[in-house]
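Notebook, p. 212. Picked up where the previous page left off. The plan for this session was modest: take the two constructs that came back from the sequencing core last week, fold each one, and keep the raw output in the notebook itself so nobody has to go hunting through shared drives later. Recording the first one now, exactly as returned: residue sequence, then the structure token string.
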Amino acid sequence: MTPSIRTTLSSAVLLLSAAIPSLHALTPELSSIDLIAEVQDDGAYTAGSKALEDHRWPDAVASFDKVINAKGKRIDSALYWKAYSLNKLGKSRLASATCDQLRAQDASSSWNRDCSALTVTVHVDTQALAENLKNINAQANEVTDSFNALADSPDSHPARGSDEDLKMLALNSLLNQDPARAIPLLRGVLTGNQSTAMKKHALFVLAQSRSPEAESILHDAVTGKMDPQLQREAIQSMAVFQGKRANETLVEVYKTTSDPQIKRSVISALFITQDAPRMVELARTEKDLETKRRIVSELALMNDKAATDYMMELLK
């Protein structure tokens, strides 16, 4: 079996196992030898595809980020596969936000259909879980109430087509065309009286900019100098868009906070950036057993010498 055929079959198995009707994503990989050869010429895209096949979701996110940042011709598909990988990591809100980025960037892209299928599948699975729990025992009422509260909470995204949603699409477009005008407006959203959902969307848009002013605002949100409800979202966005550049700030936040939820967000962010050495350092100094257990569980999923060495250290 040739390498090209093996790659094609592996990709097909991966897509079929995802339980997502992603016809656009499946058909080209099976039908176009030229596309396969083209993908193999692109190092970052190829690395991301290999990470998908190996179920190394953080590596896939990092690789497709490189394709996105390079603004190449595969940026649409890279955004979809990044969203897919984030969803596999349990980061459904970040996956949805990445799909929003794809729609804002190119509303006509056929990859939007795949992203829609991805986010709809997540939503349906959540509802099904709540319904199943309701039928199992009396505790289901509490679970169902929790799901309903989540759906009605300000943490949800602005309704598509709403006034807030249109404003965020406009700001995202303005950021790409005229960052000097867009960034002060985004700061105004983050410090104003807008809904939490709109603030989180503004934060996501802002995190995509590499301008010093935008990164300064994101840093303030990450370190808790803005709306406390935004801090965890900011931590995740910094990890996704800045990668390892964010790690020093993330560790600083971890060491200066006593909030276990913020610590968990930092641990998750360091997992996204695959900084095993810093995670090992935090695990060694962490006094809270539950938090330490969370770090160790993330390290156990990482293919890194520092993580492996620490696992062996714990077994002694």
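Okay, moving on. Second construct, recorded in the same format:
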Amino acid sequence: MSEPKVSDEIDLIEVFHGVWKKRYTVIKVGIAGAIIGLLVALSLPVEYEASCRLIPENQGSSMGGMNGLSGLASLAGIDLSSNNGKSLSPTLYAEIVGSTPFIIEIINDTLYFSNDDVKLTPKKYFEEIYSPSISSYFLQYTIGLPGLIKSMFMQPKTDKLIEENSNVFSLSKSDKKLIKSMRERILLNIDERTGLIQIMVEMPDPYAAAQLANNVKVKITESVVGYKTSKAHMNLDFIEGAYLNAKEKFTALKNKLAIVSDRNLNISSASARIEIENVQMEYNSAYQIYTSLGTQLEQAKIHLNEETPVFTMLEPVLIPTEKSSPKRLLIVLVFGILGTVIGVLIALFKFQMG
């Protein structure tokens, strides 16, 4: 039983010697792989990553004292019973950031690009200044060549600008491509257990990356606040409108009561007394409505404040000082190792052929 083992050991030693004889081939292929890796690493565009961390503080929405508003607000079609005390699902934050209106707003904000010393929107920067890497061109004219040829024979379409401040958007091919690219540049990580939100943004410029990360932070907090407080705002607007009308009516009746009282000051007739009593009753009713709506208005303001989410900044946005990609040393090492493995396979093949 020991003879096959000896035979195996002899075979392995022979293989090792065979590879060792071709060691220069292995070294050459390994160096060639490292050189290819270096060229690939140098051709890739430099990116900078800026990030921030924040956590939403859920404010417990109290409905105490708000029951009197429900009946009155229901007259305007406002339902106060829903969406109270509920925190937003973490997945909704990602949906907001990835939505087309959100991205359109982001790419139309002006940023400062320090490398080019210009102030431009990301849309104009990527359309007019940014140059894709050599590897991007290589992929476009190799893997993407069929699509490129197909587009040459398709009916050309007029390139329309992105429409802002509208619920309907007309997007050209270049707009869709840019929106897709920006979605890939913005990453949102949410810890479902703690609610911690981490915003990460990649841009070819460090200052632009920091500004864009801050813009994303501001806009996502505004979107969440708007979503959470929309019904409370509707309720407040309704109560405030009713309060102003009641105040106007109350003021008019107060003046009317003063005029009627002065006019019938020295008159003791029954008709004069009845007129004063009627105006007094209207005044009392208007006063009760006016004071009641004043109380409800203050309660509505308190309710809006309770419904407004508060975000605490744990880690502010910092301007990156080092590039986040490409990892050039890692790329060179990977290609070098891959080249070495290919060199060993070539040496083994030559050994077997010999």
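Notes on construct two before I forget. Residues 59-67, 72-85, 156-164 have pLDDT under 50 and may be disordered.
Flagging for discussion at group meeting.
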